[in-house]
Batch of 2 targets.
Target 1
Amino acid sequence: MTDSKYFTTTKKGEIFELKSELNSDKKEKKREAVKKVIASMTVGKDVSALFPDVANCMQTDNLELKKLVYLYLMNYAKSQPDMAIMAVNTFVKDCEDPNPLIRALAVRTMGCIRVDKITEYLCEPLRKCLKDDDPYVRKTAAVSVAKLHDINAALVEEQGFLDSLKDLLSDSNPMVVANAVAALSEINEASATGRPLIEMNAPTINKLLTALNECTEWGQVFILDSLSNYTPKDEREAQSICERITPRLAHANAAVVLSAVKVLMKYMEMMGQDAEFVVSLSKKLAPPLVTLLSSEPEVQYVALRNINLIIQKRPDILKHEMKVFFVKYNDPIYVKLEKLDIMIRLASQNNIAQVLSELKEYATEVDVDFVRKSVRAIGRCAIKVEQSAERCVSTLLDLIQTKVNYVVQEAIVVIKDIFRKYPNKYESIIATLCENLDTLDEPEARASMIWIIGEYAERIDNADELLESFLDSFQDENTQVQLQLLTAIVKLFLKRPTDTQELVQQVLSLATQDSDNPDLRDRGFIYWRLLSTDPAAAKEVVLAEKPLISEETDLIEPTLLDELICHIASLASVYHKPPTAFVEGTGGLKRALPSRSGEEDASVMATGGASASVIPEPGSLIGDLLSMDIGGGGSTAGAGGTGNVDILGGGLDILGGTAPSAPSTNSLLGDIFGLSGTSSTTFHIPPKQVWLPAPKGKGMEISGTFSRKNGQIHMVLTFSNKAMQPMNQFAVQLNKNSFGLIPAQALNVPNIPPNQSLDISLPLNTNGPVQKMEPLTNLQVAIKNNIDVFYFACVMPIHVFFTEDGNMEKKVFLATWKDIPSANEVQFTLENIECNADGVSTKMNQNNVFTVAKRHLEGQDMVYQSMKFTNDVWALAELKIQPGNPSVTLAIKSRALDVCHSIFAIYDTILHN
Amino acid sequence: MIHSLFVINSSGDVFMEKHWKAVIPRSVCDYFFEAQNKASSMDDVPPVIETPHHYLISIYRCNIFFVAVCKSEVPPLFVIEFLHRVVDTFRDYFNDCSETIIKENYVVVYELLDEMLDNGFPLATESNILKELIKPPNILRTVVNSVTGKSNVSETLPTGQLSNVPWRRSGVKYTNNEAYFDVIEEVDAIIDTSGGMVSAEIHGYIDCVVKLTGMPDLTMSFMNPRMFDDTSFHPCVRFKRWEAEKILSFIPPDGSFRLMSYLIGSQNAVAIPVYARHNLYFSPAGHGKLDLTLGPKQTMGRQLENVKVEIPMPKVVLNCTLTSSQGKYAFDPVSKVLNWDVGKIDPQKLPNIRGTINIQNGATAPESNPTLNVSFTITQMAVSGLKVSRLDLYGEKYKPFKGVKYITKAGRFQIRM
């Protein structure tokens, strides 16, 4: 007899049949009927129509029947909330049952019934169960609190269940402690504030560590994960916790092992790196990580993704374990690719011979993706380990001889990188490469080959013929190839001007006249102009010495790596992205590695606080900012596309940057345009402040200020890329603000290579959505790039909103001054003003504050001024200046009282400038 | 934590689903199917898939996909380990795990899943405890239950679940007290074309069947305990004692369990008990020749048994005409796998297989040779040389029957041709 009999259908209709069976008097028949219902439910059939009949079976002594009915209720209560109420009585009764199994079952099931009306009835029984004598009931109740929180968070807090949960952390039974930890961390994750609910202090930690030794493997994972959120007071504490956690590395459960690795990796940061303890701990970490690789392939995959992070942080841990990453032919592809990645990271002078012979072996395998990546890996080895470069090149040549199309193409792409890294060393192989010209059909391989020909045009006798052969199909080529061909032919022309003039003209006309692609056209025009005006300069630009390519272009940027190390064993470690980048609704869960001294943190905090008031809760704003749609995507797409070519084009990066109008990579140009905010203009531009410090911006530092030119407000920004990867795909958004500022155009920032910075001026309009901010001049900005979206706030100087037509007529001024009630007048004193009434007048005039009238009264100079905001609000000012007295009294009247303080502040700044 | 579980067969049908929180519609599996379609074989489906609102974490075992759906940041290994535990439990209960068996036992499966996970938190995953809560089905019990009206769900709380030794139930009684230990070692190796060792390691484990009355406290010591590069233990093992004295001290669970597993290899030399002389070449004319001989090596006089060879031939191979000196061979023209069931290896008369290989007309000869996959067993020997020196029982008065057995097997043993 098997359960498949539950699927036999009858002619009368299944539901009808079941209904009558459920209402049968015979217990046996009833039970069988419920089983049939459950079986249908399991395969996804809708049997919700039977709700009342199944619920009727709930009152029974038979535990199995009771369990089955509960299973049914959990699934369908949501769709039948009114009916579900009927079940409440039984639940409440069951919570009083002498059998702990039934008490636990009842409290557990009640939590799974996700119906608001029922939750109210749940509170009392739950409270009792949390204090039950039986630990089995308590541990079940702990989980139920988390369930209830999921349904109705406010209720849980009202009823004080969180405190009860915290009490359970001190429970005598380790399983109860583990479940309480699990429940608390789940509630924590779901809560919007992201503030930790458990205050981690020495006694709590001690309790957790004690429970750690005794609870189940799953409980250990929860406990280890919460320990990883704790930052020990000092090195000693960290060390003693580590000692107690280390035995977990010998656990049979891979999840426990990896969670223990996480805590250890984090705490090791707090200790001196040469300390004996750290050295011995590092040694202990290797074997368990290796053991993970002999588990099921799924476990291997997660382990490999994490090992990838661990060896970037601490390369020493696995430096002798290269062999375990060798690929077995029947590994799943996802394991193979990860292993390759790690092999390259571990490659060093000592093991390179072994690695290369393995990679060569892989390059003859069947799986195309894997073969391609293996060939790339050989190239990466050559770049990483200089001593091996020669051997890598000869291996690649061997592979080219196989004539397997995709192997050849991939090999040519990596050889191009090797040429970049070791110029003038391996050019003897160019002839072999040229033999394969016809077989290349992938854009990247074609572009690489063309780059090689252009770069070494003087050594290839028939370079002109080769390039000309590509030119025939110019229109059909991929942009990448077109750009490369253009550059290569120009290089050729500069090297051999006599016989290639025709060729260069041909390509320039193809690029500038027959192409729709702006990148190609721009580059064509630049070359054209360069060549026609100053060939010597052209030579210097096009044939400039190229910066060397870095050894490890694929390393994760350090600040991100540190964050990811805190997330070892979690999904973040699999994606290699911080959780904020992909987990929905996480608030401030950002974790940082503890630093040894703590000074560094403090200084970062200090600069952060002084320069820009960072928006306190990004979580609450995300929705707001994201709902406005991020502009600038279109213009940045082009920049992304040429990213690859930039590397090839070498010295051309700079030229590429000048093609679009607004941004300039050169701060000299910025000066000419009057962007960089020096005193060359009369309009007061506050000095730039750091709005987004690099650690907060994952390596992107933004500083900026505001200016007003020709009646338009500009946001003047400096982007500095302090990360190790290029940044691109920039876009900007402004949150709703007091003056309705919105960007007038998309943020036109091209690719910023590492360690470069860029000045840009972004024109702003004032016709956007308005929302009053506190303070008035606060502006919240979101900047996106290829790495993440960043939020910061800055304060706008109010005078940028003063319009050019703010000069009020005298009569109107007088009338308005009288008209505005004196309640709207605010008086300030400006100290240490050194200039006289005329000086004040001119200074303020340059900033669109206009002097309406001046009078001399009783030894005082009275100056009356007016200003108008972009939103047509007027403000009037009266200054009392006593010659010889550095104190000036300023009275401001406006219908919008809020602006007065900002106006005073700007008077103060401008007059002291 | 784990929100839902979908069980999917290899043809892409969801034949079972279980939700621990709110019901998540099946359509979420579409992302999984998408990944499945992209993968060239079932084994290649990535285990962690990101979708706009959920994370799908899956394992592939017994030709079935078990796909867990998670909503928040979870440790993926936690989910993967749990899913493997689910499959282990099914195999334990029903002796096997397949679509038919799950379908035949829907209700027990459903009850088990509900017992194993509560709101996404694992509740009871120890097989001992589960078996006390839900009795495994067998025909006798089904008959008895239908007569007496009893069910296979226990009415009382399992005793072990909350004690200090949650893995052992109290009140165990046997008339014959016995404890058997199998030391099993698997050799993973990659051997290159010329017979040189590329990498090799030994994954060993000690599986036990312990049927002892009361609360026995056992200690086990090894002749050479310092050879392990890494060890992991069943929770019953007292880790401190191992650290200090290298002695395994534990109160065993009742029945069968894995006491410890270990790794030897990264730092120690590993003996390779088998070698192959092989010659495989493809002529451009469109046929190939295979000549393969296997022989024992470093086996300390023990015999190689259950020897099997698997060669995944290149796609262009049509057929193989071979003669073998012993055992049977078979070539599957669909999967292109050549299997040779060798049996025992007699050192005096080494097994050999040779013959021609036919290639598709007009196809070019393959670039590279395939990799041999060899499996074998050697009884009464642990290839690492590990030996149990003593096994003692404390806490109970009887004298149990004890036995230790050593087996060496091929793990992932690959020879490149």
Target 2
Amino acid sequence: MAAAGSLRRAGWGLLRCPPVLRCPAQRAFYASALMRRASDEQKQELPPSSSQQRYESHPPGDRPDQEPQRSHHSYTDQGGEESEDYESEEQLQQRILTAALKFVPAHGWTADAIAEGAKSLGLSVAAAGMFHTDGSELILHFVSQCNSELSNLLEQQQKLVQLGQAEKKKTDQFLRDAVEARLRMLIPYIEKWPQAVSILLLPHNIPASLNLLTSMVDDMWHYAGDQSTDINWYTRRAVLAGIYNTTELVMMQDSSSDFEETWHFLENRIADAMTMGHTAKQVQSTGEALVQGLMGAAVTVKNLAGLNQRR
Amino acid sequence: MTLDNINKPDIDRIIRVDHAGEYGANRIYAGQMAVLGRTTVGPVIQQMWNQEKDHLKKFNELMVTFRVRPTILLPFWNVAGFALGAGTALLGKEGAMACTVAVEESISAHYNNQMRTLMEEDPEKYKELLQIIKKFRDDELEHHDIGLDHDAELAPAYSLLKTAIQIGCKAAIFLSERI
């Protein structure tokens, strides 16, 4: 329960109606997910228990009843300097945002959804005042959560392959499945997703959203088995980010059943990327063969002209 | 020392800059061999080059294990390293040796700094990495001494050349850590 000690902050008693017993362990991971993407230092605060939590995937917003038991442990933590029902501001925010997601299909990515979310937790609707009015934090929280879920999924698949219980997929198939799995997480919110994308493109959100995109793409390539340590590291990630973004755009306008056209589009883009890779390799080896041919010709000419003789 | 318990930002920088350094050193020796490969000093340079290749291989492995991003300046170090090696080699074998002395001195000091940083932080946790860096530092010092043995100090404008190269190395280290 080091998490409890390390994440305690000034309270928000004003905004809370009933006294609440909360366990920070699970929250700690989400509390960190958003902040950590932007700032590396906070990664060091990552409590050891959370490295186990990465392997648990769980749906957002419904962790009701483990708290009362765990809070007893937290009482003895860190000299028991604060009472058990303390949670940090970040943890509270994460809880509210998670709860708010349920209301997004109805209210959009807005302060209204956040207010409804707070209400559903028994907190005052004024809690929505903790966040910006444009819904940025809600969207970033959602994206961060989806990325974590994807990470867990890929990690589990990797374990299965290592245990020999599953076949290792080829790169293009792997990337296709990873992008599809990630995009499918948008399906419940697809109506309001265009609004979210436009908010993520606002200048003050670009660092955070770019960070989330790059770490997602890095994760996908890592689990796909990328081991490049040269400029390919960059080109591969850039290409995959492009594929992901264009497929996301197609998905928002797709009205086919179960988004078949989107997956078809994705398949074609990945095939293009693979072809591009092969073509680049072929060009390089052709170039090398050409240079060798020219060098050979030059040496031959030198020999014929008698310039290569030793005296 | 696992992916989960390290100080990721610091280790990132360390591995990124060391990888770039070994990559650059490889290219410098390649440039020198291109000019001086068929002279008497060729085998000496070849041997030092082989050791640098081993170093690079090790950092490639560490880079993958710790999911470190390579510096985006690698194509630039590719060309600049080769140009430096070939350029100094054109000054003669003493020039090439002077370049070796300058670069290896910079790299050894740099590795020493890194070792100090890691030891201040947690010598136990980073034991493996410390051992690797220590071994590589010893190899680089050996190259430095070989360079001196092969008349590096007789190179034209030795101190000017050495200072210029070392300033370049410092700039390269600074940039590769960050970009």
